[in-house]
Amino acid sequence: MILFCLCIFSYNRRIVILIGGNDVRDRAPLFAKLTEHHRSKALSFHVPGHKFGRGLKQEEEVYTYYHHIMSIDGTEIAGFDDLHHPEGVIQEAQELAAECFGAEQTWFLVGGSTAGNLAMIQALCDRDDILIVQRNVHKSVIHGLMLAGARAVFISPKVDQESGIAAGVRPQDVEEALKKYPDAKGVLLTNPNYYGMGIDLERIAAIAHQYDKPLLVDEAHGAHYGFHVRLPQSALACGADLVVQSTHKMLSAMTMSAMLHVQGNRIDRGAVHKYLAMLQSSSPSYPLMASLDLARYELDTDGHRLIEQGLAVVEHFHSLMEHLPEYRILIHQEQQSAYTSLDPFKVTIMDSTGTLSGPRLAHELEVRGCYPELSDAKHVLLLFTLHSTRGDAERVYEMLIEISNYYQLAKQETSSAISNINELPPFLPLSDPISLDTRLYRQVSQTQMPLVRSLAIMDAIGECSAEMVIPYPPGIPILYPGEQITAYTADLMMKLIANGIKFQGSDIGAHSIINVFTGGN
């Protein structure tokens, strides 16, 4: 992602456009200000200490990379504006982003969508408030509820019958939750999920607004949505009130850079701004913010062509894979009900003979020089973007041929059995409110407290979990503190461990043990 900034910086023709095109969208004002300052050779008697990239000159290879990106790594000096009180180039860049993505107001984020999820929840919920949340959310949503001391009513997602992957929630389940909990502060959903599966967000937004509740959407994987007829509509276009997007995931911004968008009058924008100032650094990275400016610029000025180009690469890969029936690719079936759309840039593959697990297939790709986005028990997710090439598609295809030949997959019998990493225990469609007060977590973390003990997973059936169990990827909790460990859940954890899946913030995977509360609930 650093090289993206440098590529634009190195072309004089483009820098002229960035500084002053006829169309206001042909500008990247923040990036232009940073490069203008660099060319001025102004003296730096301020932070950061590397003085616009003078450091590490003695390390030639390091300096080659370090110098260029650090040459625009500044701080809040005159003209550079302030992320937490924007009035100049950052404000202009954010306004251009809002126009581009269809928002009324946009905030740049330097802490990823995680910062956006945390701020959304803090701005909406006080202690003991209820928020309706789909169960398979990113852990940052749970952390936001913990920080707010709020309660979650979880809606269980539907499971895709072809792949067994937990997809999204149904509109009728959202409405049932709103009827049962009329005091809920709002609804927070993920769309699309990690695998690109989407839900009927427009209908859900209409239902939420019918009950006068805001719809918050974690659209981390959908920043490119709405910019091409072959892509799903964006959450904002569907009517969502507050939307966070990881601009770095599918577009050209640098890792950790994201945006938070708002529209309508159901959200207290002042509260959002306040919590963003609390949750983000007071010294935000200017290269990160500039990369957001540039990603918007690229999408505004060349997005349609790049999306067409990227989609053509995906189509090319699909056509190649038709020659390898030993692999199965997830295809959206219109008649199935677990999800309503599938991001074409997310290509989920599996060994249809059952010979290779997802982690094993991913490993075989990695040793050949291809690094997938994720693997689960059976699947590998290949993430294509606007900047993938036909050469990329052909190389991974050749690797899959090598793997098939090595394991003689073409000679094996294919299986239609469904298996699933993201399968969730058989929860009720709608949970009771679950407290995620941080006071509970502080008690759990104090190991000297007699409240908690450790048990082997299979011995913990019937006990109440004292920790959050998060297999990663994709970072979806399957157990929350206070929830009972069922035989199904214990078996699922053991299966994940056997398949090499890691657990975040837990020793479960290493030792097959889990912390439980003493004396049941």
From TrEMBL:
| Needed co-factor(s) | pyridoxal 5'-phosphate
UniProt KW keywords = Aminotransferase, Decarboxylase, Lyase, Pyridoxal phosphate, Transferase
Q: Which domain of life is it from?
A: Bacteria
Query: Which Gene Ontology terms cover its molecular function?
Result: carboxy-lyase activity; transaminase activity
Q: Which residues form the Orn/Lys/Arg decarboxylase C-terminal domain?
A: 453-490
Domain (Orn/Lys/Arg decarboxylases family 1 pyridoxal-P attachment site) ranges: 29-325
Could you tell me which Pfam families the record lists for this protein? OKR_DC_1, OKR_DC_1_C
UniProt lists the family membership as follows:
Belongs to the Orn/Lys/Arg decarboxylase class-I family.
What protein name does the entry list?
Aminotransferase class I/II-fold pyridoxal phosphate-dependent enzyme
State the species of origin.
Paenibacillus albiflavus
